[in-house]
Amino acid sequence: MVKKITIILALVFVVVLAGCQPSPTPEDRLKAYIDHWNNGEFSEMYSDYLNKGTKEAYEPEDFVERQQKFYEDLAIQNVEVSYTEPAEDIEWDPENPADFPVQIQMDTLAGPVAFEKTMTLLFESQDDIEDWFVEWDPSFIFEQLEKGDEVRVSTTTAERGEIYDRNQKPIAINGTGYNIGVVPESFTDKDNKEELADVLGVSVDFIDEKMKQSWVQEDQFVPISKAAKNDEELLEKVKAIPGATYQETAMREYPYEEALGHLSGYIGPITAEKLEELKDQGYKSTDFIGRRGLELTLEERLHGQNGIKLFIQKQGDNGEQITITETPAENGETVVLTIDAELQKSTYDAMDGEAGTSAAVDPKTGETFVLVSSPAYNPNEYMLGISEERFAELSEDPLNPLFNRFGAAYAPGSTIKPVTAAIGLEAGTLNPTEGLQIDGETWQKDSSWGDYRVSRLHPEAPNPIDLNKALVYSDNIYFAQQALKMGNETVVSGLKNFGFGEAIPFALELQSSQISNEGTIGSEGQLADSSFGQGQMLTNILHLATMYEPFITDGTMYKPLLFVDEEKSQVWKEGLLSAENAKVLREGMRNVVVDGYAQSANSKNVKIAGKTGTAELKGKIDEEGQENGFFVAYDSESPDFILAMMIESIEDNGGSDYVAGFAAKVFEEYKAR
Length: 673
Fold this sequence. Notes:
Blueprint: H1 2-20, H2 26-38, H3 42-49, H4 52-57, H5 60-73, E1 77-83, E2 98-108, E3 111-126, E4 129-135, E5 150-156, E6 163-164, E7 170-182, H6 190-200, H7 204-211, E8 222-228, H8 232-239, E9 244-253, H9 261-264, E10 266-269, H10 272-278, E11 288-292, H11 293-297, H12 299-303, E12 307-313, E13 321-327, E14 335-336, H13 341-350, E15 356-361, E16 368-374, H14 379-384, H15 388-396, E17 409-410, H16 417-427, E18 442-443, E19 454-455, H17 467-472, H18 476-486, H19 488-497, H20 524-531, E20 539-540, H21 541-547, H22 549-553, E21 557-558, E22 571-573, H23 579-594, E23 608-616, E24 627-635, E25 642-647, H24 657-672
Parallel strand pairs: 6-14
Antiparallel strand pairs: 1-2, 2-3, 3-4, 5-12, 6-7, 7-8, 7-9, 10-11, 12-13, 15-16, 15-25, 17-20, 18-19, 21-22, 23-24, 24-25
Helix pairs in contact: 2-3, 13-24, 16-18, 16-19, 16-23, 18-20
């Protein structure tokens, strides 16, 4: 009896305790539902929180799988769902719906999405559980989404930015070209196919593959190859083949072709590896990307950002499209260079296909007018899809047109002598009017030099040899003796003041100029060699042109610039030369042309001043005896630019005067503009 009473009391206690528990509220249920929502836990949301009516209307795949796919395909992230809290004293009636304003925001691949809706909870019984359950429909995914609608994505391709020169001449632009192709029903003759293959430099099998693509229709144009719009010869040959034709199409154009080839570079289809690397930056498998030159260096600025739109496609063939969110396309930048494209072309043409490089700078601002590598490739060929045969031809050319010479460094030869003189003049060890007695073709300080001797090309130079004669006759012995007089420390310090041994502050990566492999001078013989640009000394062609600025600016060397929007006349080095000493060197370099061995530059139309240089390539068995010729020059009456030019292998062409003749053409054409 006691046991029975105990059991009854326990049951009464449980019932009383249950009665004391607060009944579940719709707000508690909503909070829990939103927590799952923010965590993307759609299975739990469906099974534990949706009301009967919702589950009858929507299968799990309509709720769970669809939302999971949206999150994946639309890159939905940073989902934040919240609700507006009800008044504290509200009393919930299970007989009536409970409504809550719900705020939904997220990021998608097309941009942010935010909206507010009313979410309703109903009190009902499910699986012997009585509680509040959520009433749901697809508009809680995207505001205007209804059952049966589709969510789609469309993209707008951004236009690639263009590159222009300082005078708005186009260097790399979004122009047009031609697709060369056939219409299958009109192109059945085997001989015509073989002729087209020969004209395009492709195989008959290649043409057959194009014509057998799954999408091809007998009456549709089938592209086979591409052509630049100015390739009139090729287009005429195509036109003469029955069944072959061409259609205009959008295409990147490089109007200056080889003259600016190494500087502009080119674009090409994005590779699978690059696409994987850049997939988070909006690139698509159909995109083109910079491959070389400025197209590669400026890729981030030129590419732009494709536009993307997320929209709802309403039911039916003529259903309305409702935009959910959209990020408009941002076209790439228009980049304007300091380069003078016509001067660049004039310089490239003047070099007449010889292997070499040139640079020109404005001595007053540091702006780069010319950066030539010769010979070069035509970037339009790569844009059009270069054939294996043509690529092999370029690769095997002994003049190496694929090598960018303005990015490299070379022994400068005697073009460094004005710099050596400037260091001595400023150090006070070189008196420009003091003459030295120099006899014979070779000289050495003493027997401690062993077999090493300094040679000079013009032993006929009349004594005494002062600075002017040393420049006019390009006397190696004079400059070697002056370097020894200055001493190792002064010469090294002076060269470093001119920028040797440090990165050239330029928009493109160029090989730095060096005093030696170690950056020091280890012997008197090396000191002598370095004084006239031999030994282990190397200079970049742009840096070499820049080093002549102090002779015009009375001691200041500016950072070389490539973009017109950069601040002009940024000082790189200053105090290199006094006005008095600069004048001495200017007079000497004018006399080099008038009285010396740069007679090919002694123009009647332009009073050119400058310094020649011949550098023997040492230590290269396959290039034994090769000499590179240099000329660095400016118009002494109107020094609008300094031109530095180097031509390889001039040993059989009369020395560096050969280069002076090329440079003179550039100045004369510029004067005539």
